[in-house]
């Protein structure tokens, strides 16, 4: 018998492992952008179900349910009217200030809710992100969709209040413009929510800063005052140009024009708001997708 342990003994070849099997991919790898969009489309039923089920759950948690969608902006509007309309007299020079304020408060509240819901979606669902494999963008999209659907009664209540107490100049077919304007606002807000969702997932402390950021945005959007009051101050001309380029300011201006003053939005406004909506969604989606591999690790 040959001693296999002797130096001259023949030894069996080590087991060779072939690599590069076709069809295999690294677990958790980020898919290509087209493949990611296709996977989101495959999850469209989950997105819709998640948005609707959580919306119903939120209604059941509150005794007044959807009434708060109306009460919150109305109470905010009353507060702003007392402080800025009566005490500070910022209503000077604004036709139909009550309607102007209603549109500003309801319109800003909608963007605020959609942005905050989308931005905190990953942070609020860390256990789900850690435990399951699915396109993570479905979470902020579902959260934004939930707030969009949930705010429909709020916008309807705004229209009723305008008719009841704001007495618009004229009720015309231009009121139909509200639908595409709000649709662009929803797309823009959801895009910002996707972008912030990536930021907050990486740095959860940023969520605490968001309330201050949204408050600054509110003041920069002319919610309860008009930028026209500063038109005679040439030193502010550059700042006013920047503020008037604010997409939320333009959205509120378009809503005020069609609902209060019987004015159609200009082509420049449509193009500006449309560009902001498309750009915000594209940038937010791509930034979110680019970090798809990191969300599971950040959730741990």
TrEMBL record:
Membrane association type: Multi-pass membrane protein
InterPro entries (UniProt xref): ABC2_TM (IPR013525), ABC2_TM_bact-type (IPR047817)
Domain ABC transmembrane type-2, chain residue ranges per copy: 64-291
Recorded superkingdom: Bacteria
One Gene Ontology CC term in the entry: plasma membrane
A GO term for molecular function: ABC-type transporter activity
Pfam families named among the record's database cross-references: ABC2_membrane (PF01061)
GO BP, sorted A to Z: lipopolysaccharide transport
Transmembrane segments: 63-85, 97-116, 148-167, 173-195, 207-227, 270-291
Protein's cellular compartments: Cell inner membrane; Cell membrane
Keywords on record: Cell inner membrane, Cell membrane, Membrane, Transmembrane, Transmembrane helix, Transport
Family: Belongs to the ABC-2 integral membrane protein family.
Protein name: Transport permease protein
Organism of derivation: Zhihengliuella halotolerans
């Amino acid at each position: 018998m040959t001693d296999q342990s002797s130096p001259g003994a023949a030894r069996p070849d080590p087991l060779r492992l072939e690599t590069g099997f076709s069809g295999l991919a690294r677990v958790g790898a980020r898919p290509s952008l087209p493949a990611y969009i296709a996977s989101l489309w495959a999850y469209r039923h989950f997105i819709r179900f998640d948005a609707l089920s959580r919306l119903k759950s939120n209604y059941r948690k509150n005794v007044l349910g959807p009434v708060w969608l109306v009460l919150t902006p109305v109470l905010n509007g009353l507060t702003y009217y007392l402080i800025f309309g009566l005490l500070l007299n910022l209503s000077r020079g604004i036709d139909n200030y009550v309607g102007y304020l209603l549109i500003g408060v309801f319109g800003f509240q909608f963007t605020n809710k959609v942005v905050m819901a989308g931005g905190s979606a990953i942070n609020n669902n860390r256990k789900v992100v850690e435990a399951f494999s699915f396109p993570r963008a479905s979470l902020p999209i579902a959260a934004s969709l939930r707030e969009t659907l949930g705010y429909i009664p709020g916008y309807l209540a705004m229209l009723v209040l305008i008719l009841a107490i704001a007495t618009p100049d004229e009720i015309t077919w231009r009121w139909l413009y509200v639908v595409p304007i709000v649709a662009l606002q929803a797309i823009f807000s959801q895009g910002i929510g996707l972008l912030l969702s990536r930021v907050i997932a990486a740095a959860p402390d940023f969520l605490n800063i968001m309330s201050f950021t949204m408050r600054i945005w509110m003041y920069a959007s002319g919610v309860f005052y008009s930028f026209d009051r500063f038109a005679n101050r040439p030193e502010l001309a550059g700042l006013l140009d920047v503020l008037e380029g604010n997409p939320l300011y333009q959205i509120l201006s378009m809503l005020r024009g069609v609902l209060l003053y019987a004015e159609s939005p200009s082509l420049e406004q449509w193009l500006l708001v449309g560009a902001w909506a498309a750009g915000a969604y594209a940038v937010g989606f791509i930034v979110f997708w680019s970090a798809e591999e990191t969300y599971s690790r950040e959730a741990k």
